[in-house]
C-alpha cells in the first residue's frame, strides 16, 4: 500500500534496511569468507556470527522502540526489517544443527578432522542461502521505502493512523487504451 510520505521520513524508513544490508555484506559476504581463506578456524565462524547477532539485536530493539515514538511509516519499516532477520536466524539454527551433528559424528574418529572440514563447509550453505534471500528482500524494501510503500500484510497487522493519506493509483487494467490514430 502506498502512502504520501515526506522525504525526511522516507530517509528514516530506509535506515533499518540499510543496516540489515550492511550486516549481510560486512559480516557474511566479506568477513566469513575472509576468515575461511585465512584459515582462522572455528573463531572465523563465531566472530562474524557474534557481530551479526549484535546488529540483529539492535534492529529488534529499535523496532520495538519505534512503535512508541516517531512516524508510523518508519516504525513499519523497522518492524519489516526485524521480521526479515528471522529468516537469517533460521539459517543460523540450521547451520548450528549441522555443526552440532558434525561434532557428534567426528568425535572419536581417526579421520575426524577431514570430516569436520567437509561438514563445516556444508554447514555454511544454509546461511549463504538465507543471506542471499535477505539481500534480495532488503533491497526490495529499500525500494519500497523510497516509494512510500508498506507491504499489505504488514499494514493489516500494524494498521496506519487514520490521518495518514493513502496514495491511490490506477491499476494497469483500469487504464483505458489510447484511441487509435488514423
> Distance between the terminal alpha carbons, to the nearest Å?
39 Å
How much is the radius of gyration in Å?
22 Å
State the secondary-structure class: mainly alpha
The helix fraction, in percent, is over 70%
Strand content: under 5%
Q: Looking at the structure, what is the overall shape?
A: elongated
Total number of distinct structural domains: 1
Instruction: Output the helix-strand order.
Output: HHHHH
The total strand number stands at 0
The number of helical elements comes to: 5
Task: Give the averaged pLDDT, no decimals.
Answer: 85
Main β sheet profile? none
Low-confidence stretches: none
Brief characterization of the structure:
This protein has 182 residues and is mostly helical.
Task: Describe the protein in words.
With 182 residues, the protein is mostly helical. The protein has one domain. Helices cover 73% and strands 0% of the residues. It has 5 helices and no strands. Helix 1 packs antiparallel against helix 2 (43-66) and helix 1 (7-37) packs parallel to helix 3. The chain is elongated. It starts with 6 loop residues before the first helix and ends in a 25-residue tail after the last helix. The mean pLDDT is 85.
Amino acid at each position: 500500500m502506498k502512502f504520501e510520505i515526506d522525504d525526511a521520513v522516507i530517509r528514516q524508513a530506509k535506515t533499518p534496511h540499510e543496516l540489515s544490508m550492511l550486516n549481510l555484506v560486512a559480516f557474511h559476504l566479506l568477513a566469513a569468507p575472509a576468515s575461511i581463506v585465512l584459515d582462522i578456524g572455528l573463531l572465523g565462524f563465531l566472530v562474524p556470527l557474534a557481530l551479526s547477532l549484535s546488529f540483529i539485536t539492535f534492529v529488534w530493539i529499535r523496532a520495538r522502540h519505534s512503535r512508541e515514538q516517531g512516524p508510523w511509516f518508519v516504525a513499519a519499516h523497522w518492524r519489516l526489517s526485524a521480521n526479515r532477520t528471522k529468516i537469517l536466524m533460521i539459517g543460523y539454527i540450521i547451520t548450528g544443527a549441522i555443526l552440532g551433528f558434525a561434532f557428534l559424528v567426528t568425535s572419536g574418529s581417526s579421520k575426524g578432522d577431514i570430516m569436520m572440514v567437509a561438514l563445516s563447509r556444508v554447514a555454511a550453505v544454509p546461511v549463504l542461502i538465507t543471506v542471499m534471500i535477505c539481500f534480495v528482500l532488503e533491497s526490495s524494501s529499500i525500494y519500497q521505502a523510497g516509494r512510500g510503500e508498506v507491504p499489505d500484510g504488514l499494514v493489516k497487522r500494524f494498521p496506519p493512523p487514520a490521518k495518514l493519506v493513502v496514495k491511490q493509483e490506477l491499476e494497469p487494467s483500469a487504464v483505458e487504451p489510447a484511441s487509435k490514430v488514423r
